[in-house]
Amino acid sequence: MTTLTGSCKCGNVRVALRGNPVRIGICHCTDCRQESGSAFTFFAVWPAAEFESQGETREFAGRRFCPNCGSRLFSANEDEAEIKLGILTEAPTPLAPTYELWIKRREKWLRPIEGAEQYLEDRT
C-alpha cells in the first residue's frame, strides 16, 4: 500500500496518507484563492480512516493550519480528509487533477487541465 507523507513548513505538523485518494482536484473559487493566497488550490480527498496527522493545528472555517508557521494543511471530518497537496514531501507529486472547480473564476492565462472534468462552480 502506498503511503504519502507531508508536513507544514516548520515541521511541527506531519501527515500520512495511505492508499489512493478518492478524488483529486483544483479549485479556483474565491475562498480557495483567499485561503491559499494564490490563483487556485490543488487538493486531494482520502477516506478519513486512511489519514492521520500529528502535531497541534488550529482551525478557521473548517480548515486546519499550523499555529507556528501558518501553513494551510487540511480539512477533515469523520468521513474524509481533504489535503492541500503542496504540503506533500514528494514534489512534484505523483497525483494529477481529475477535475477543476469554479472555472468561471479561473485566471484567463491558465489553461484547463487536459483530461480533467470542468465545473463552472461546484461538482454536482
In short:
It is built from one helix and eleven strands.
What would your notes on this structure say?
With 124 residues, the protein is mainly β. The protein has a single domain (3-118), classed as glutathione-dependent formaldehyde- activating enzyme (gfa), CATH 3.90.1590.10. It has 1 helix and 11 strands. It has one helix spanning 30-36; strands at 3-7, 14-18, 23-27, 41-47, 51-54, 58-60, 63-65, 72-76, 80-84, 99-101, 117-118. The strands form 2 sheets. It has an 8-stranded mixed sheet. It has a 3-stranded antiparallel sheet with strand order 1-2-5, with no helix packed on it. The model has no long low-confidence stretch (mean pLDDT 96).
**How much is the average pLDDT?**
96
CATH topology term:
glutathione-dependent formaldehyde- activating enzyme (gfa)
- Total E-strand runs: 11
Distance between the termini: 31 Å
Order of helices and strands: EEEHEEEEEEEE
Amount of helix: under 10%
Rg from Cα: 14 Å
- Determine the number of helices (DSSP H or I, runs of at least 4 residues): 1
Q: What does the overall shape look like?
A: globular
* CATH level-4 homologous superfamily: glutathione-dependent formaldehyde- activating enzyme (gfa)
What structural class results from the helix and strand content?
mainly beta
Number of domains: 1
Strand content: 35-45%
